[in-house]
Amino acid sequence: MTKLNCGVGDLAITVNCINPENMGNIVYILRPDGYRQCNYQEDKVFTWEVLVVGANSWLLYEIDGWPVSKKIGSVPDYCLRRITPPKGTSKKIKNNKQDNPQQGILDFSVIDSEQVHQIKVNNEEKLTKDK
Q1: Is the pLDDT score of 117 beyond 80?
Q2: What are the beta bridge partners of residue 36?
Q3: Which residues are within 8 A (CB) of 72 and not within 5 positions of it... i.e. 6 or more apart?
Q4: How far apart are alpha carbons 38 and 69 in whole angstroms?
């Protein structure tokens, strides 16, 4: 059994992407998306449905030969690295400037399922209009 890099509810960063535009995106793992044929891999790979965090960040896909940008999309597990501390680790994350004065604070607001649904609907409407 292969150990997955991420789990539902994690924040992750995209790595090893075929499209360089997708490198370094911060994403929120929404749900498992199953095994899919991806990125010229011989075998199917495990993928996650993710939400891109950040107003000006998108995932770029090629669909029917056309570039398409999405806020919610499927990303292979091997292209993700968890940035959320693993469950069960100490939660000693405080804004203590004496510990590391150069450390910034990342403020990611987590959205609810209704907002995720609306983003999906908007993505589908955009795809339909673009065709």
Answers
A1: no
A2: 45
A3: 30, 49, 50, 51, 52, 116, 119, 120, 123
A4: 17
Residue 70 dihedral angles phi and psi, to the nearest 5°: -140, 150
CA 16 to chain centre: 13
Please report the beta strands in the chain, taking only residues with DSSP state E, as ranges in sequence order: 11-14, 26-36, 45-52, 59-63, 66-70, 72-76, 80-82
Query: What does pTM read for this prediction?
Result: 0.66
**Domain ranges in the chain?**
11-86+106-130
Mean pLDDT of 87-104: 50
Give yes or no for residue 38 having a pLDDT over 70: yes
Neighbours of 52 (CB within 10 A): 22
Dihedral angle over CA of 5, 116, 70, 39, nearest 10: 30
Residue ranges in the chain assigned as alpha helix (H): 113-130
Q: How far apart are the first and last CA of the chain?
A: 41
Backbone angles phi, psi at 92, to 5 degrees: -85, 65
